[in-house]
Amino acid sequence: MSESAAPALLHVGGLSKSFGATKALSNVQLKLGAGEVHALLGENGAGKSTLLKILAGTQTADSGTLELAGRPYAPSTPQHAQALGVAFVSQEPALCPDLSVAENILLGTLPGRYGFVDRTQLEQRAGAALARVLPEGAPLPDLRQRAGDLGQGDRQLLCLARALAQAECKILILDEPTSTLNSSEAERLFSVVRELTKSGIAVLYVSHFLEEVERIAERYTVLRDGRFVHSAKLAGTTRSELVKLMAGRDVQELFPRSARSPGEVVLDLHELAGQRLPISASLTLRRGEVLGIAGLLGAGRSELLRALFGLDRVKSGTLRVKGVLGPASPARRLAEGVGLLSEDRKGEGLAETLSLGDNITLSKLESLGSFGFVSPTKRNAIARSYLERLGVRARGPEQLARDLSGGNQQKICFARLLHHGTDVLLLDEPTRGVDVGSRADLYRIIDQLAAQGNAVLMVSSYLPELLGVCDRISVMVRGKLGPARPASELSEHALLLEATA
Amino acid sequence: MSDQTTAIGRLFRTPWLGPLLALCLLYALFTALAPDTFARQSNLLTMLRQTSVVGIAAIGMTFTIVLGGIDLSVGSAVALTTVVVAECLRAGMGPGAAAALGVLSGGLLGLCNGGLVAGLKISPFIVTLGTMSILRGVAKGIADEQKIDADPRGLDALMQSHAGSLALPPGVWLMLAATLFGVGLLTYTKIGRQIVAVGSNTETARLCGISIPKTTLFVYALSGLLVGLAGVLEFSTLTVGDPTDSVGLELEVIAAVVIGGGSLSGGQGSASGTLVGALLLTVIKAGCTHLGFPNWVQEIFTGFIIVVAMSIDRLRQRAR
Q: Relative to the CA of A459, which of A95, A136, A233, B241 has its CA 20 to 30 Å away?
């Protein structure tokens, strides 16, 4: 059976969509076969989200054809799309934390009569739906449990179960499904996806993690700047070819390395322990170096950074910042020149409803005037210089932070640290949810900072990045930080082995 | 074993368990301090009667707060309802018709609040801040800024208990019925679970095909009906229509919901908890009165209890 003879389950052709003057999509095509996992690749701003939104029914295309199983497909709302067999599981598992697991799965189609909920039927159907998205033999979670008490991995499965339970699902769209999962949860998700494709469901898989895409998907489609670039089988395509297709440039340029010369010790930890995590962490960080911390989610890496910055309390151990012992609070740390880049950009890192200028100057408003006054002119001038220096794609300092893409938002977070004049930077997952192009920019910024004599402590779950950016890397396992070793002596394999030990 | 621990765990997490304990403790405390007056059965009856108006309005407010909304116009709506009932009676209507019109006018006001919130997408705090003033003005306008005397034609019996008899007045039964209704609606019906869903995560609820405007309208209208009922009981207590009555009642009503485990960010709250909250407020007031404390002590004590209840709730949430 030749590929062209088999009718595609989903056929997208000549799709275009504009928002005002900007063309989000122009003449995009996509073919999805029954039972295949198809990766949709592209940087942020490449048009992936717009395409997904059109497929999921939250937006309508300006022109182009959409066909589902040979019939025109024109969803008007997400519910309509779901009823037609296209289910969408978003990046952040969206659920009602105060309802039970079972209620969340069947929300919208709660079974019952005369307005009353039929609990027996509810739990039976929810249980069956959950069983579909669990590996064989895995125990069912408590259906009466509050959904808000579930971990991230279980939330994802719950959303998956809900998507499958609402109607007969033909196409499942997964948007960055593993970005909040640890590796065992991700493995579980992969096996579930494979099971689902066996029953003929096509999966459109969007992810920044190319390793993951290579493992799970058979074919891929790359978008760039709202245009279709290429579509082919993954077998026989190298990772650097994919990156080149997505970014339009070579992967070698991704990790620049200037000459760095380690100087005095600025951070000295001896058997530091937090309230719960970390259990024990010892390290020294010098000026002019980038020290990486690898490890699984939940190993205690973020907690270590938070304790260093004074956000969480330290239980025992010593911590010297630039040789000084003392109590920790974010204000004190900032005064000492220590800055933290939060892993939770939307929740903690940025004030999304404030302007870029406000966000950049927030930690050091006294630079904007005297006697407690702030000058908007000064603020905008300062912000403009950082926007230019870091290559932020934005209209100007007055634009709201929430309007920027993930990569550009992260640059704003960096700009705040730079404006504050911090020289010890604690970076927690600095490239999470950031596209390849902006990542390259962030790596360049980190490299420059280190070359200028700043000290960088960086937590990341993305091993190629740690190996590419850091001078030394420590691995944190279940709250205990291992010794730091030169990155040149380490490999992804070695780090992974140590992290999962 | 594991079933037992989860059962105990669930009980521990029941948000109104703490307030219930506080209610019992305070009751015991006041009983010990004023055994001759406070502990009397007639006083228990009086306290239940005094709770009825706040209690019934608070059951309505529970729906609103669980939805993630708020209603500041409750006090004005109650006053307006007493005026409507009085005017109806004065116009020669029978007590049943007047009471029904009172309840319906409350529902209509609720529907207006809901329509503004759902239709114009204005925050409920702002909408009801506006209607609070509007309704108070309308009540005063209708009543010509005076109390309206009207023959209650038996409506006063709703809140009367007979000397020597320990039978509960109809108003108290109505409050208990409203509580049962609230528990049943929020726990066992589809619309109830949908209300919780909207308050818990509006976006998810919308994705699952729940109509946010319809749910909002339903909740505010239902809540309004209960406010109307509270207004009829208030008339029954006053036996006049009073446009200046119940100023600040909404704060007491909100306090009852919040003490009972309601969360102002939505998704959490229960009718049973609200009843406990309302009773707690009454017991504090009555207890202070029986001990001869002046009004200002009562007010400080009440405020104190609200803050303490909230602090305990925060600790409990953090513990899990």
A: A95
